[in-house]
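Technical annex, item 7. During the second reporting period the consortium partners agreed on a shared format for inverse folding records so that results from different sites could be compared directly. Each record opens with the tokenized structure and is followed by the designed sequence. A conforming record, contributed by the partner at site C, is shown below for reference.
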């Protein structure tokens, strides 16, 4: 008797629980009036400026966690889709129903093929009362 079967969709429950716990470690999620509001719970020392070396170190340390969460979420969606009697993960059908999924998939591909990705996170500072043209 197996305790965890990759062939049975029922066991995806554990994967869903794991991903939800990952989300809960990084974000506060509230649902109000059928709208989902997500806020980061990454806390920084209030004694340091947001662009201080300490803040940069904290930010850089959390990026791998966010990348891992994103990849886990993508794989979970793929597994759920296949476990619900859909033999192929039809991204076109999903993107037709959920247009934002295309960008989610594209970012996942960038993370997966990091040596080909051209993504750099840089500091951007907007001062109050200024506009970017």
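Designed sequence (site C submission):
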């Amino acid at each position: 008797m197996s305790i965890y079967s990759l062939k049975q969709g029922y066991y995806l429950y554990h994967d869903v629980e794991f991903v939800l716990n990952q989300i809960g470690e990084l974000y506060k999620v509230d649902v109000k009036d059928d709208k989902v509001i997500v806020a980061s719970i990454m806390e920084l020392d209030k004694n340091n400026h947001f662009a201080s070396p300490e803040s940069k170190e904290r930010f850089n340390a959390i990026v791998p966690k966010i990348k891992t969460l994103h990849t886990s979420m993508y794989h979970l969606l793929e597994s759920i889709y296949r476990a619900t009697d859909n033999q192929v993960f039809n991204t076109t059908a999903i993107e037709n129903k959920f247009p934002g999924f295309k960008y989610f998939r594209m970012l996942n591909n960038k993370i997966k093929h990091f040596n080909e990705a051209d993504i750099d996170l840089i500091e951007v500072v907007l001062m109050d009362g200024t506009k970017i043209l």
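The helical segments are 12-26, 53-83, 91-97, 101-112. The radius of gyration is 19 Å. All partners now use this format for quarterly exchanges.
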